[in-house]
Amino acid sequence: GALVYQYPRRTICKSGTSMRMECQAVGFQATSVAWYRQSPQKTFELIALSTVNSAIKYEQNFTQEKFPISHPNLSFSSMTVLNAYLEDRGLYLCGARDQRQGNSDYTFGSGTRLLVI
Amino acid sequence: GDSVTQMQGQVTLSEDDFLFINCTYSTTWYPTLFWYVQYPGEGPQLLLKVTTANNKGISRGFEATYDKGTTSFHLQKASVQESDSAVYYCARSNSAGNKLTFGIGTRVLVRP
């Protein structure tokens, strides 16, 4: 079956430092990867959508300068939180799908929980 | 803009109780609608989805009907079990089908 692994599961970084998180798709080809953030007491907010061979599209309030994303092949993506501050804490989710399969849905990883101290 | 409104907070039930979670959507067209379930320490998993208005989605005893008239997609289960304790999210797709917008989530606690 389709699985998505994210690592690390949990991380702590000092305020002002950066943190890279990774996302691995297994059992299918991840032509599209969506990165979400779930801040405390909030729902999932889409950060950006990455499609292989296309430009990465960031949502309002999120920028490449703050959340650079790499999607180099059909099984891997990474995102970095640059200069993390308290408001960046939360659960970062990676969802992946094969958009070439007409009715495919996103498969989500378990997330990377970021604490900022 | 397009959104999903879901009852928030926590629902506490006993085993074999009836579960109902409210969800409505606002839109000028008819998106695909989803219910996701998130167990502790895991990412959200697709529970069910419905692509066509006035159809019903059924999975693992849960069901939700895409009601075009009331723009609702309420989740129901006739008899819950302790293992159903989780957070449930209503979600909708965008017109291109490549983005999901989630509701606030409803925590369900089922006591044995």
Task: Pick out the low-confidence regions of chain B.
Answer: none
Largest interface pair: A-B, 19 and 17 residues
- Rg of chain A, Å, rounded: 14 Å
Radius of gyration of chain B: 13 Å
Helix content of chain B: under 10%
Residue fraction in strands of chain A: over 45%
Q: How many β strands of chain A by DSSP?
A: 11
List the helices and strands and how they pair.
The complex is a heterodimer of chains A (117) and B (112).
Chain A: E1 3-7, E2 10-13, E3 19-26, E4 32-38, E5 44-51, E6 57-58, E7 69-73, E8 76-81, E9 90-97, E10 107-108, E11 112-116
Parallel strand pairs in A: 2-11
Antiparallel strand pairs in A: 1-3, 3-8, 4-5, 4-9, 5-6, 7-8, 9-10, 9-11
Chain B: E1 3-6, E2 10-14, E3 19-21, E4 23-26, E5 33-38, E6 45-50, E7 56-59, E8 62-65, E9 75-77, E10 86-93, E11 100-102, E12 106-111
Parallel strand pairs in B: 2-12
Antiparallel strand pairs in B: 1-4, 3-9, 5-6, 5-10, 7-8, 8-9, 10-11, 10-12
